[in-house]
Write a structure and sequence with these properties.
Blueprint lengths: L4 H30 L15 H34 L18 H30 L8 E8 L2 E6 L4 E4 L1 E5 L9 E7 L4 E4 L7 E3 L5 E5 L5 E7 L11 E7 L1 H11 L10 H9 L2 H4 L23 E2 L4 E2 L2 H9 L1 H4 L12 H11 L4
Parallel strand pairs: 1-5, 4-10
Antiparallel strand pairs: 1-2, 2-3, 5-8, 6-7, 6-9, 9-10, 11-12
Bound molecules: dinuclear copper ion (CUA).
Amino acid sequence: MRIRWHKCLGWLWPGAKCALQLALATGMFICTVAAGPPDQVTSIFKPLSTPAESVYESALLTLAVCAVIFLIVGGLLTYTIIRFRRRAADDSSEPPQIYGSNQIELAWTVLPVLIVFVLILVTARTIADVQNQPAPPDSLKVTVVGHQWWWEIRYPELGIVTANELHVPVSYEAKRKLTFLRLESADVAHSFWVPQLAGKTDLIPNRVNSMWIEPKEVGTYLGNCAEYCGTQHARMLLRVIAHEPDDFARWAAAQQQKGVEDAQVKTGRDVFFATSCVNCHAISGTVAKGRFGPDLTHLMSRDTLASGAAPNTPEKLRAWMRDPQTIKEGALMPNMQLSDKELDQIVAYLRTLK
Ligand code: CUA
C-alpha cells in the first residue's frame, strides 16, 4: 500500500502537540518527584509537613481519577479514529444518522456528577481537617504581614521581629511542635505558599487569616508569594528554616538581643541615623522604629536581601543601598543618593548587625 503523506500532514500538528504536552507533563512530574533534600525543593509532591501531606493525598486521588478518565476517553477516541477511518473503497454516502440514546446520555451525565461529588467531599474533608486543627498550648505563634514586596515576621510571645526568613522548630512524631501563622497584609492581597509545608493561604488587607505548618525535617524550605501583588510579586520569596529545638532556642535568644553597638562603626551609624532610613526601618534599642521596611536589628543573620532578590553579601548590600532599582525594579525603597563614602560607612555599620 502506498502511504499518502499529504493526508497524514493534517494529523502531524495535533499529534506533535499532544506528544509534546505529554512529555512536558511527565518531565515536570519526574523533576518534582525526583528532587532531593528539602533545600531548594518547591514541589507539592514532596510533602514534609502534615497539612502538605493532606494536600498531597487529595491531589493524588484527583490525578488518579483524571488519569482513568483520560485513558478511557483517549482510548475510545483512538479506537474510533482508526476503526472508522476513511477507506479507499468507501462510497460517499452518509452513514446512518442516530438521534440520541437515553441510556448513554444518562450514563455520561450521572457518572461525571458522581465523580465531581466524590472529589468535592474529599476536598472539603481535607480542608476541614487542616483548618480545624486546634493550636496546642505549646505551639509557636508567628504573625506574618505581607508588604509590597517582602514579608514582615513577628513572634509576639518571643518579642522577635524579622523579615522574609521564617525560623521554626522541627516537629518530631514523639514530640510534635506546630507553628501557627496569623496572616495579615499591610497593603494589597498576597498569598503565603511554601509547597512542601502547606497549601496556600491569602494575606488580605483588613482581615486576619491563619494557617499552620509542621516541618518534619531540618532544612530550608522555599516558597513564594502566590497572589499577584504588583511589579515585584515574583521576587517576594519566602524561606522557612526548620531547626532542631535546641538550635531554634539559640536562634531565638540571639534575635532577642538589642542591635549591636560597635564603636568602630560609629561614623556609619551616625550617617544611618541622620538620613531618613530610620523612618522606614527599625533597629531594636535605638530611635529607629519605622515599620514600612524590614527590621534591621539582626540583618546579618539573614541569608538574603530584598525578600530573596539577592544574597546577603557586602557587595549586594552596597548595590541595594546605592540604587534598589538595579536589584529589584519597582522596589519601594527610595534611592537615598548616598555618596560612595557614605555607602561604605553605612554598609560597615549594617554588617555589624549580627
Ligand atoms: Cu505578594 Cu504576590
